[in-house]
Specification:
Length: 472
């Protein structure tokens, strides 16, 4: 790849990435060997993937082949296997027989990639995106930050294409926001769990709110490190059960490009209903984690008695408040019984998930050009492009989104297993010459009677129509 050694600020780039999480890191890794002028901005000082949830022993929920590049380009130098090779750990990994790697290892692998890609710019905060009709380019304004996060310089980049990968933000339920925002009150989001773990282990009573994977992992970690008979733990969640995640082989085909294409072709109301119905595909708990919790609870009954741990699904927090100076009182409602009760606890961990970080502030300058659906969400086409006014798209300039298309592309949007395929799709569309040929079929399941036909890129069509020459 040829990177301009000294990019001129007024020269338009081919692609500007905003945010450097796993999705845009995948895009940067696959763009690296191509002849593209790219830059990726991130306001944090370095790559970190949910550092507060890198609990010892916790694994990612996709096989290691779902790294940044392999499912689009197995020969790419930024694969997880090549990372192991550079660390002289291939043989230990081979004998360990781990299909699912630890989160901490995935985080370290991504950081290794981020330290080797020259197009990444950490300590850069993007402030605004605008359309410049005179130059028919996007303008990206940014602030360069120092090690303390203070502004040191302002800059502007012009680009033909943008990839938004700004990630998610922790979701805190409304009844608990006042407590979570109060300094000194032990109500934290799971994202910050490891930062507060020592305090939580010494708290007299701890309540975990949330019945997904993070809630299960935190409950298990607390359970394992509190004395038998004195666990003093509550685990509650809104779902009707601490349900296992759907992980059958045919069930996993919902995380294939085939299902993504099928989902995108459905009508908006059907898509919205389907997302709600498919919660167990991506919001359940890994069966191994559930088994480990049960095993730990059972172990604590071997000498008689039951552990002092209460696990109750189907419960929502109605309101919450402080009790005295150190305790929290939760007002609970059981959704099936209709019954209510109060729970006094010393600390609360909110494993209540994440919401997509809103585009609004960043794209305010583009609002007149954005096309929205009936729920005022951005419309996104099959190639992960925001649907914009034709005055922009007719110029060949586009804004791509990464992990922000749940409402248009389905449950695979946040899944790490589709990151490389989505990045390759973006680069194929952006370049127009298909540097990463992708399969036209990826699942045994046919998801509809009328399956959308995969779009064959023009570059591939041209190759398929080229006549064979007789070399004799």
């Amino acid at each position: 790849m040829t990177h301009p050694p000294h990019h001129q600020p007024d020269t338009p780039r081919d692609l500007v990435g905003i945010g450097i999480g796993p999705c845009n890191l995948s895009l940067a890794a696959l763009a690296h060997p191509l002849t593209l002028d790219t830059v990726f901005y991130e306001q944090r000082p370095d790559f970190h993937w949910h550092p507060g949830l890198l609990i010892d022993g916790a694994t990612i929920q996709v096989p290691f082949l779902a790294d940044l590049v392999t499912l689009a380009d197995p020969t790419n130098p930024w694969s997880f296997l090549n990372y192991l090779k550079t660390r002289e750990r291939l043989f230990p990994f081979y004998f360990a027989e781990h299909l699912h790697i630890q989160r901490a290892e995935y985080d370290a692998y991504c950081r290794w990639v981020s330290h080797h890609l020259p197009a990444l710019r950490f300590h850069h905060q993007v402030d605004a995106i605008r359309w410049n009709p005179e130059r028919t380019l996007f303008e990206v304004d940014y602030t360069q930050l120092d090690t303390d996060g203070e502004a040191t310089a302002l800059g502007r980049t012009y680009t033909r294409n943008i990839a938004l990968g700004i990630g998610t933000t922790p979701h805190i339920p409304e009844p608990l926001k006042p407590l979570a925002d109060t300094p000194g009150v032990p109500v934290i989001h799971a994202t910050d769990y490891l930062d507060h773990r020592t305090t939580l282990l010494t708290a007299d009573h701890v309540t975990v709110v949330g019945s997904g994977q993070s809630g299960a992992e935190i409950f298990l970690d607390l359970l394992r490190h509190r004395p038998a008979g004195q666990e003093k733990l509550h685990w509650i969640g809104r779902t009707t059960a601490f349900a296992p995640m759907e992980y059958s082989k045919l069930g996993l085909e919902h995380f294939t490009p085939d299902h993504t294409r099928y989902f995108h072709a459905l009508t908006e109301p059907v898509r919205d209903r389907l997302i709600t119905a498919q919660w167990q595909l991506h919001k359940g708990i890994d069966a191994r984690t559930l088994a480990a919790i049960h095993d730990e609870l059972y172990r604590r009954t071997l000498h008689g008695g039951w552990p002092d741990a209460v696990l109750t699904p189907g419960v929502r927090v109605r309101t919450a408040g402080r009790l005295a100076t150190t305790k929290v009182e939760l007002h609970l409602e059981h959704l099936q019984q209709g019954s209510r009760s109060r729970l006094t606890t010393d600390a609360v961990v909110l494993a209540t998930g994440h919401h997509q970080r809103p585009f609004g502030p960043l794209l305010a300058g583009l609002d007149p050009y954005l096309r929205r659906d009936n729920s005022e969400r951005p419309r996104i086409d099959e190639e992960f492009r925001l649907v914009l006014d034709p005055t922009i798209t007719s110029t060949g300039c586009n804004i791509y989104v990464q992990n922000a298309e749940l409402h248009t592309h389905g449950v695979g949007a946040p899944d790490l297993g589709l990151a490389a395929w989505r990045s390759a799709t973006i680069l194929n569309t952006l370049t127009g010459n298909e540097p990463y040929p992708l399969p036209t079929r990826t699942a045994f399941t046919t998801f509809g009677l009328q399956q959308p036909t995969p779009r064959v890129p023009e570059a591939r069509q041209a190759r398929q129509l080229t006549p064979l020459t007789d070399s004799r």
